[in-house]
């Protein structure tokens, strides 16, 4: 007798939704999760989905199918093995006093020091920081989410191409205006197509981990470390930094260049190695490890504190701040 998971998996494959509004994108993730529960090998799930996918309103690449299935399979697998505890199983790759050593080595570093080392000169008004950063780090046709921290995204409004965003920020800058409407950015480009959230696969979002189009940057942030020590850390640590953004509050957000090829490599290299093995033992916020992590958008006014989110380092391709 077949299990419930086997019956549900078979039914999904036999009646797979069409792409282009029919729900296919969500179904890739669901097929991966159900297939795992049904005991179907991951490669066989991918083959079944490719064979069962009907024609629809848009063309779907094999890479899109593979990414969705692998993500669903991985989430289901980690749920079984206690994915929330995987960090504890990874041995720290840094000495226990590594952060204090770095902070001591970089002691006295200031915002001005960091800015002076920026490969892209930051000699422009703060109102221009947004569009200058976008044009340095993204291609004009890449989609980006820029908006609030609790929104799921709306195409044409909070999800636009980098080129469209740059023009919007240029218009604000031409008026010498620092606005407060777009405080956050998903640092990695998104597809512009809704996908399932990790918390609830039935809920769709335009800024979920499942809709990342390029796995380029990891956000590195400290929650309970004085700004002076954070500046000291970034002044000496050997990490390929694409941008540093002062949040206007208690932290500096580092955009570390990782350039993973896809969700599986991100999970292996960033979530299972870089963060638990190196960054978390240094005191970095471990919750920052997902690919759709938000960071503060530079050049925006933080109304709760009356401060500007300031770009203090910009290095396309990633470069350590240390000389």
Describe the structure.
- With 323 residues, this protein is α+β, with helices and mostly antiparallel strands.
- It has two domains: 4-81, no CATH class; 87-319, no CATH class.
- It is built from eleven helices and twelve strands.
- The strands form four sheets. The protein has a four-stranded antiparallel beta sheet with strand order 2-1-3-9. Strands 6-8-7-12 form a four-stranded antiparallel beta sheet, sandwiched between helices. It has a two-stranded antiparallel sheet with strand order 4-5.
- Helix 6 (98-105) packs across helix 10.
- Mean pLDDT is 88; it is low at 81-89.
Biggest beta sheet attributes: 4 strands, antiparallel
Strand order of the largest sheet: 2-1-3-9
State the separation between the terminal residues, measured CA to CA.
Answer: 66 Å
Number of helices: 11
Give the uncertain stretches in residue-range form.
81-89
Number of strands: 12
Q: Total domains, how many?
A: 2
General form = globular
What's the average pLDDT? 88
Q: Bin the helical content.
A: 25-40%
The radius of gyration over CA amounts to: 21 Å
Multimer state: single chain
Our estimate of the beta-strand percent is: 15-25%
Could you give the order of the helices and strands? HHHHHHHHEEHEEEEHEEHEEEE
Class from secondary-structure proportions: alpha+beta
